[in-house]
TrEMBL record:
It is a multi-pass membrane protein. Belongs to the peptidase S54 family. Pfam families: Rhomboid. The keyword Hydrolase applies. It comes from Enhydrobacter aerosaccus. PANTHER family: PRESENILIN-ASSOCIATED RHOMBOID-LIKE PROTEIN, MITOCHONDRIAL, RHOMBOID PROTEASE. It is found in: Membrane. It comes from the Bacteria. This is Membrane protein. Its main location: membrane. The chain crosses the membrane at residues 6-23, 84-104, 111-131, 137-159, 171-196. Keywords: Hydrolase, Membrane, Transmembrane, Transmembrane helix. InterPro entries: Peptidase_S54_rhomboid_dom, Rhomboid-like_sf, Rhomboid_protease_S54.
């Protein structure tokens, strides 16, 4: 598979390059980051561009490693159902949908900004979970079944978003995950029966397996 047909890898390379450039240019960082007042002034591209910049190396590595681990399987499904750009469209749509609730909540807050691909990466993770609920994921370096990871992830995101602490956009994580599942069901309704069948017949698989 070439770089241009492996859209997961293509997205990762673009994200890494743009993040590196933004770290070297505060002006570029400020232009790409999700900043509600700028969106209200017409810079709607920020709904997408914020997903291609990251706060630091660890933030970038975690998101891109996760995307690489689970993107291949999800990419195959969306490309088979929606055509060659299916996965790219899914990923970009997830970036937008995941940040919309944040925009509605923070649109009049000049002190708020957000960045990172977490909303779209969450969509990929939860799409993958529908396919392989018993595959092994890592929760703070502890291997756990994907379905357990999903429950813990949702519970933590809801709790953390309610606390309103820190700079991590937990709302985008949660909304992105929900979008990932709904989009997957929309293009492959049979995956619901597949998911419950898998759920009732546990078969533990390796990481990303």
């Amino acid at each position: 598979m070439s770089l241009f047909s492996n859209h997961t890898l293509f997205i990762i390379i673009i994200t890494v390059v743009v993040s590196l450039l933004a770290w070297q240019s505060p002006q570029l960082m400020q232009r790409l980051i999700f900043y509600p007042p700028a969106v209200q002034r017409g810079q709607v591209d920020r709904f997408v561009t914020h997903g291609f910049i990251h706060a630091d190396g660890m933030h970038l590595f975690f998101n891109m490693f996760t995307l690489y681990s689970f993107g291949q399987a999800v990419q195959g499904l969306f490309m088979s159902k929606l055509g060659s750009l299916g996965f790219v469209l899914f990923y970009l749509a997830a970036l937008v949908v995941a940040i919309v609730p944040t925009y509605l909540k923070q649109k009049n807050n000049p002190r708020y900004s957000s960045l990172g691909a977490s909303g779209a990466v969450s969509a990929v993770i939860f799409s993958y979970i529908l396919m392989n609920p018993w595959s092994t994921l890592l929760l703070f370096v502890i291997p756990v079944p994907a379905i357990v990871f999903a429950v813990a992830y949702v519970a933590y995101s809801v709790w953390a978003d309610g606390q309103g602490r820190g700079s991590i956009n937990h709302s985008a994580h949660l909304v992105g995950g929900i979008f990932g599942m709904l989009a997957t069901i929309a293009i492959e309704p049979g995956i619901v029966a597949h998911f419950f069948n898998q759920l009732m017949h546990p078969r533990f698989l390796g990481f990303g397996g």
